[in-house]
Amino acid sequence: MNVSRRTKFDRLGALLALFALIALVFMPFVVAKANRIVPGTSLGLLAAVPLPTAIGAIAAVLVAACIAVFVASPGLRLASATLAVVIVSLAVAAAGSALTPLGNKVVRIAPGSGFWLLLCSLGLMATDAITRLRPGPLLRVVLLLAFVGIALAAFAHGTFDHLSVMREYAVNATRFSHEIAQHLWLALGSLGTAVVVALPLGVLCHRVPRLRGAVLGTLNLIQTIPAIALFGILMAPLAALAAAYPLAAALGIRGIGTAPAIIALFLYSLLPVVANTVLGLRRVSPAAVEAARGMGMTPAQILKSIELPLALPVILTGIRIVLVQNIGLVAIAALIGAGGLGTFIFQGIGQTAIDLVLLGAVPTVTLAFSAAVLLDALIEAMDRTRP
Amino acid sequence: MARVAPYLRIAALALLLAFLLQPQRFAPLFAPLTQYGAPAIYDQGNLLELTLAHLGTVLLAAVASTIVAVALGIGVTRQSGTEFLPLSRTLVNVGQTFPPVAVLALAVPLVGFGEKPTLIALFAYGLLPIFENTIVGLKSCPSALLEAASGMGLSNWQRLRSVELPLAMPMILEGVRLSLVINVGTATIGSTVAAKGLGEVIIAGLLSNNTAFILQGGLVTGLMAILLYDAMAVLERRHFGALRVD
Amino acid sequence: MISIENLSKQYGTARVVDDVSMTIDPHTMTVIVGTSGSGKSTLLRMINRLVEPTSGRVLIDGADTAGEPAHLLRRRIGYAIQSHGLFPHRTVAENIATVPELLRWERARIRGRVEELLTVFQLDPATYADKFPHQLSGGQQQRVGVARALAAEPNVLLMDEPFGALDPIIRGKAQEDLLDIHRRYGTTVILVTHDMDEAFRLGDRIAVMSAGKVLQYDRPAVLLTQPADPFVARMTGSADRALKLLSLTTVSEATKPGTAPGPPIPESASLRDALSELMWRGTESAGVIDASGQPAGCVTIEAILAHGRAH
């Protein structure tokens, strides 16, 4: 039997293509509201955008779907999926301008569930293609910067200005820049201070095994306390401090706001860094350390030139974990008045305004994801010991 | 430290139960933290009920996500599921960078307020550590062992049940433990979307500037998380201690 | 010259090294041999103070090793261990250059030394200098480990079971290479092993250790013919001691004037090999040639057997 099957049927691609087609045909593309508070009307693709745009979008999705099912080349899959994502996004932007009467700033056009499912399916096709390409660290960073850069450029250019999310942004523009800066400052600041303390602490725990159990146990205990609880627990003493010492209050230390947030974030940042420092140092080949001692290196030289460089990938992994964790925790800190992107999220929840929620959540997720990709690429690029 | 641990555990549990059952007895402890004669003990709801509701939400989501995550994990590591494995791994990596609060916030517009978005968020977020650990646990089964099992005449299903799953169990349980602890924290935020739980107490304290409320909510949640973490550790050690490959 | 005077190491109530005294002549290869737990590694590591003695002292060329900071002492002594301990994050060249860099040699000198050592250890510098340890085979890693120990031109080289991790085929070659290096650089080598055959092959003098004490410290032949202790006799293996003795002597010592038919045997061959060859051929004698190939006499089985007799 000499039958060779040229067309292989990719089941994952088929699944994603199915989702994409269901989203395209059966689910609302946009939801149009006359103003912020009234319920909206759902519109399918053909009803929402001019015909040429609709045809373009449908064609792009169909091509991507077919390639996902029948074509094996990851490069082609990535290209078609990305192209489809771009075209569909442009379509939703076009829907925004098409459905907004000229000069009207009250109408709210939001992407519908169909758009989101479409975006997800196409996005997963692209992600799967990237995974199959198995890009090295540099390529991953380039891809990330490319995607984020293009998206930001589109936003800055005003492509999406008619969509409800951007309307919310327009209202909150200055506050947005302030909050995103505050968010980064809190996340990075707490990480920085924690690393300064945690690294020596980790080295100490490695050198003195008796300390290890007590220190790691305590930090583990802290880690299991839910964030909002720890924020709460810190508020009492800080408020008392501010009440008793006017100087502290003058410095900005109060029961609410950045002070309890920074302290809590600092405490949460300790465990991953200390644990990973100890783990990384433990994994350093004892033969290498013995040889270094035998060659006449002082303990400080051994730490600096042998142990820390060899433990660095594991330590940096801990730092990556902390950075991603902290970006998420800062979002919660908005509840106690610390600012950051969480203010939009909780405001949106309070006002049942999904656009405000998106305005807060999407940048938060993007920041966390980017931090993970960048640090992972750095760790992989630095590891000279990997074959 | 190891010898003291069981006593600390029991003491913590006893303290927690005492507080939940007879909260008013602890009023004098919390009174100094209040101002202007505000109530020392949370009085806008029954603390015990709130704790049980909180725990219930977390456990319900945990059971659901464990079943789904382990099933998916098994599926993806089989011969027939290899196409899905690379993407699964990427999704797990990517998914864990999503802050839990963002997942919760995005669930609200989809299903409204109350228990549902919290359960969805806890389910979705809890899936990831368990899914990842199931994959790692199953994949790290020594191939020599698998060959020996097949060689003995075990069917694939029997091999899964008697060799692969038991060996992967410590890792899976570790994932469940991680998921539980994260979810106790995320469920506290659930109160911002009107889910019944201990977050209510903390938020009430934040709104009325009542430090006593904040502390009560915080301590109970904290204790609950620690006790759950600990209980899982004991479970892991007792049943699967011999299988751990460190 | 290394002088070990009443060296002891005590951990709690256990005396791991018990009042050891010995003198090691310069440019010799001394092998310390014993079973595990005999204290041989601890003794070695007290020479470069990786382990500090409980009592006693070590003098190198008349100077007490306790008189300077340990890490400075170790920079003057080469140290090679069984698991070689190469730094995984540094190239072969960077590994070898470690001690010279600690001693702040000039770059050119370091580079020259690295190239020289790589060539001597049969690792082409152009190919191997920039490789990482994980890219090398076990045998190559072991060679780089020894090269690294010799980089700063130490007078003394300490080796702790350096060939233990190699498979038997490579081990023989590695031992030969060590003898070559020893001859070339004249370094005083102190080597610890549990392998008696290795000790006999390499050592100018052998120290047999058991339970922290040195039972006998002498030339290999003396250990065979006059063991000071039943333990020493057991370790050297009473069953084939005659053959061992023969392996220590070269044909040149048993050569008598005369000729014999058949292919000649080189005079640098061991008597044991000569005996084996004669038995194989089924003849009583064979001719002997010297290093340049000239006839030097003949050797008979009888003469060989006489050398194997207890004295």
Overview of this protein structure:
Chain A is 78% helix and 3% strand. Chain A is mainly α and 387 residues long. The model of chain A is unreliable at 1-6 (pLDDT under 50). Chain B has helices at residues 5-21, 27-30, 47-77, 85-95, 100-111, 115-139, 143-151, 156-189, 199-208, 211-240. In chain B, helix 3 runs parallel beside helix 6 and helix 5 (100-111) crosses helix 6 (115-139). Chain B is 74% helix and 0% strand. Chain C is built from 14 helices and 13 strands. In chain C, a hairpin with a 2-residue loop joins strand 4 (55-60) and strand 5.
Regions of chain B with pLDDT < 50 over 5+ consecutive residues? none
Number of E strands of chain C: 13
| Number of helices, counting only DSSP H or I runs of 4 residues or more of chain B | 10
Q: Let me know the largest β-sheet of chain B.
A: none
Strand content of chain C: 15-25%
Helix content of chain C: 25-40%
Q: Give the total of beta strands of chain B.
A: 0
- Please report which band the strand proportion of chain B falls in: under 5%, 5-15%, 15-25%, 25-35%, 35-45% or over 45%: under 5%
Shape, per Cα inertia axes of chain C:
globular
Largest interface: A-B, 55 and 47 residues
Q: What's the order of the H and E elements of chain B? A: HHHHHHHHHH
The sequence of SSEs of chain C as H and E is: EEEHEEHEHHHHHEHEHEEHHHEHEEH
Shape of chain B: elongated
User: What structural class do helix, strand and pairing data of chain B support?
Assistant: mainly alpha
N/C terminus separation of chain C: 31 Å
Distance between the termini of chain B: 21 Å
Average pLDDT across residues of chain C?
A: 90
Short structural description:
The complex is a heterotrimer of chains A (387), B (246) and C (311). Chain A is an all-alpha fold and 387 residues long.
Strand and helix map with partners:
The complex is a heterotrimer of chains A (387), B (246) and C (311).
Chain A: H1 11-26, E1 30-33, E2 41-43, H2 45-48, H3 51-70, H4 74-99, E3 108-111, H5 113-133, H6 137-157, H7 164-207, H8 209-224, H9 227-244, H10 246-250, H11 258-282, H12 286-295, H13 299-333, H14 342-351, H15 354-382
Antiparallel strand pairs in A: 1-2, 1-3
Helix pairs in contact in A: 1-3, 1-5, 3-4, 4-5, 6-15, 7-8, 7-11, 7-13, 7-15, 8-11, 9-11, 11-13, 12-13, 13-15, 14-15
Chain B: H1 5-21, H2 27-30, H3 47-77, H4 85-95, H5 100-111, H6 115-139, H7 143-151, H8 156-189, H9 199-208, H10 211-240
Helix pairs in contact in B: 1-10, 3-6, 3-8, 5-6, 6-8, 7-8, 8-10, 9-10
Chain C: E1 2-11, E2 14-24, E3 29-34, H1 40-47, E4 55-60, E5 63-64, H2 70-74, E6 77-81, H3 92-96, H4 98-102, H5 107-120, H6 125-128, H7 138-150, E7 156-160, H8 168-185, E8 188-193, H9 196-202, E9 205-210, E10 213-218, H10 220-225, H11 230-236, H12 241-248, E11 265-266, H13 271-281, E12 285-289, E13 295-300, H14 301-307
